[in-house]
Amino acid sequence: MVKNVDDIIIRTCSRIMVPFLQIFSLYVFAHGHGSPGGGFQGGCIMAASFILLAVAFDIGEAKRRFSEKANALLCCVGVFIYAGAGAVSLLFSSNFLDYSAWRHIIPVGPIMARYYGMVLIELGVEITVMAVMVSIFLDLVTAGDQEAVLEGIDD
Amino acid sequence: MNRLLSLLITALAGLLLLYGAVEFPPWGDPRQPASTHVSPRYIEKTLPETGVPNAVTSVLADYRGYDTMFETSVIFTAGVAVMMLLRRSNGKKR
Amino acid sequence: MIELLITKHGYLFYIALIMIGFYGMMAKNNLMKKLIGMNIFQWSIILYYISIGSKKGGTLPVVLTGQAARAADYINPLPHVLMLTAIVVGVATTGIALALLVILYRKYGTLEEDEIIKAIKQ
Q1: Is residue C14 assigned to a domain?
Q2: Rounded to 5 degrees, what are φ and ψ at B53?
Q3: Domain locations in chain A?
Q4: Phi (first) and psi of residue A101, to 5 degrees
Q5: pLDDT tens digits, A55-99
Q6: CA distance B70 to A68
Q7: Which of B23, B39, B67, B87 to probe by mutation at the C interface, max C CB count within 10 Å?
Q8: ipTM exceeds 0.90, yes or no
Q9: Which of A108, A142, B38, B85 has the fewest CB atoms within 10 Å distance of its CB?
Q10: Residue in chain A nearest C101 by alpha carbon
Q11: Out of C62, C87, C102, whose CB is closest to A143?
């Protein structure tokens, strides 16, 4: 199904590139307020780092770093953060997704409360996009036979 | 036969689109309808009202945050759908 | 006619791309090529929609100065925002379509459209 090609140049280069890709995705996410960037872009770059690991090495290597259980959990956590950040505004008699109601929790003014609310929901979007892209890629590549790939790990 | 019919339909659709393209506003015109109604308000009010200089992020996350929430749920549903279509377990417990 | 070519030449390229994707969806026999045609169709429409937000002499929609911003100096951010959602929906659609192709190949052993229709009708 997936051949194990042993190539030292590809393995060394991707081993160097993967941590820089992850730091760059966090940088793009954090600078989404002052320059082009944001949640979707950072999530795609972080997913690309895991896909690079799966392409250059074995599929089992990517699964060892990012297990199935953590993947499925992170898919749901992102949507939960987004909807939860909107629902907290309902508790303070404001509109749904009105971030200026967060000023009752964080001691800042109403304008900066909208700023921090936007950071929180962009975090939720990044987590969901990253987890779903890695999940779709691994499902399509192994064609669903999860255990047949995982059996190679214990060697 | 199939290819000839497809080519004919494609050429017809292309000619219709070209006929509609005559009525489009010129390229880069600041007075076109896409840039007039609510978009100047977003650009002018993004720094005083939200404190975020990037107009794209403030429109995406604050002024149109409802659309972004449902779009996040759409990609979550797609991930779940691919899981349901493709994964099959061999019945072994690890 | 000449005015169409000079002031609105951008729209001709987008129409050409849309027609290429449309022809690929209809005329090709292999299901994978149909899927690629659908992808070309989708991305060219997204490209066209983003292009209608450009302004002559405008810059990125990031308001950096402390004074009040004039709307004529910055390009329109609204098409960019709407198309971010459309891009993600396009990726989701492509992922599900590829999963369906994997299931079809597993069941019928081929990806040609006429062979699959013949195998269904039996």
Answers
A1: yes
A2: -70, -25
A3: 8-150
A4: -75, -10
A5: 888 888 888 888 889 999 999 999 999 999 999 999 998 889 888
A6: 25
A7: B39
A8: no
A9: B38
A10: A140
A11: C102
Question: How far from chain centre, in Å, is Cα A108?
Answer: 28
Tokens at residue C27, please? 């005329």
Q: What does the alpha-carbon distance between residue B22 and residue B9 come to, in Å, rounded to a whole number?
A: 21
Residue C64 falls inside a structural domain? no
Q: Which residue range(s) make up the domain with C13?
A: 2-58+70-121
Q: Which residue has the tokens 């013949």?
A: C118
Cβ–Cβ below 8 Å for C56 and B47: no
The pTM is what?
0.88
Residue pair B46/B53 in contact by the 8 Å Cβ criterion: yes
C28-87 pLDDT, tens per residue? 999 999 999 999 999 999 999 998 888 888 888 888 877 777 878 888 899 999 999 999
Length of chain A: 155
Enumerate neighbours of B (3 or more CB pairs within 8 A). Answer: A, C
C86 is written with which tokens?
């459309």
Distance CA B30, CA C58 (A): 9
Q: Is residue C84 part of a domain?
A: yes
Residue at A129: amino acid letter: V
Chain C interface residues facing chain A, Cβ-Cβ under 8 Å? Answer: 60, 62, 84, 87-88, 91, 95, 98-99, 102, 106
